[in-house]
Structure formats: structure tokens, C-alpha cells
Design a protein that fits this description.
Elements lengths: L9 H16 L3 H15 L8 H8 L3 E7 L3 E7 L12 H15 L3 E8 L2 E8 L3
Antiparallel strand pairs: 1-2, 2-4, 3-4
Helix pairs in contact: 2-4
Length: 130
């Protein structure tokens, strides 16, 4: 008997992100999802920041593009997939995940700020480097 590869559907993913989580988490959704993203980063630490895009692609979170990299601030664009119909659910899991990866890799505190753009989000990562 061969192993079957299971492909989860976009509909199932959207059910969780757009319907269930907002109902369960209410007004605290963004804060809880941000912390959840940080927890996921600790469970799936990357070896370097360059691996972020590949992780996002594998997780189905969208296409992550580096816009600008500085000493204390880095900016990414998170583009939706071409066929993505729903773009209204919270992207705070993604923001928390990136912030925690920066914390782990650079041994500092980091915060990700989300800015909504048309068909994408801009993520500003601020690090507290001395």
C-alpha cells in the first residue's frame, strides 16, 4: 500500500481563518493570533531570514517579498495568491511569526506592524538592537 499525499483545501483553511477563529476569539483575535504566530516560530525556528519566503509558501500564507532591509527596521510585502478570493481574514499569525523569527535569529526583541495595502499587506519589523 502506497502512502497517499493529503492536500488540504483552501475552503477548509478559509473556514478556520475567516469563520471559526473570529467567532472564538472575538475582539482579542488579532492579539491572540499574533502570539500564536510567535509560538509557531518557536516550534519551527528558521536557520536564517532568507528561509521566510519558502516557509510562507509552504504554509500557504502568501508570497513574502523583502522590500527594504535596515539595521533596526525591515519591511516585507505579503502578497495574496493570484487565485485567492478572500483576503479579509487577520494576518496577525504571519506578523507574529516573522517578529519571533527575528527575535530568535538576532537575540533581541522585535515587533511586526501590519499595514493594509491593496491586494497585499506591508509588514514593518522593528528590532530593539543596541
Amino acid at each position: 500500500m502506497s502512502e497517499e499525499v493529503r492536500k488540504y483545501t483552501d475552503f477548509g483553511y478559509e473556514l478556520l481563518r475567516e469563520a471559526l477563529l473570529p467567532e472564538l476569539l472575538n475582539d482579542d483575535q488579532d492579539d491572540i493570533l499574533y502570539l500564536g504566530g510567535k509560538l509557531l516560530a518557536r516550534k519551527y525556528p528558521l536557520e536564517n531570514i532568507e528561509q521566510l519566503s519558502a516557509f510562507f509558501d509552504k504554509a500557504g500564507w502568501g508570497r513574502l517579498e523583502l522590500v527594504k532591509s535596515g539595521k533596526k527596521t525591515t519591511t516585507f510585502d505579503l502578497h495574496f495568491f493570484e487565485d485567492e478570493k478572500r483576503e479579509n481574514f487577520s494576518r496577525h499569525i504571519e506578523a507574529g511569526f516573522i517578529a519571533a523569527q527575528y527575535e530568535l535569529l538576532y537575540q533581541t526583541t522585535a515587533e511586526a506592524i501590519l499595514e493594509r495595502k491593496r491586494r497585499r499587506f506591508r509588514l514593518h519589523i522593528h528590532m530593539d538592537l543596541m
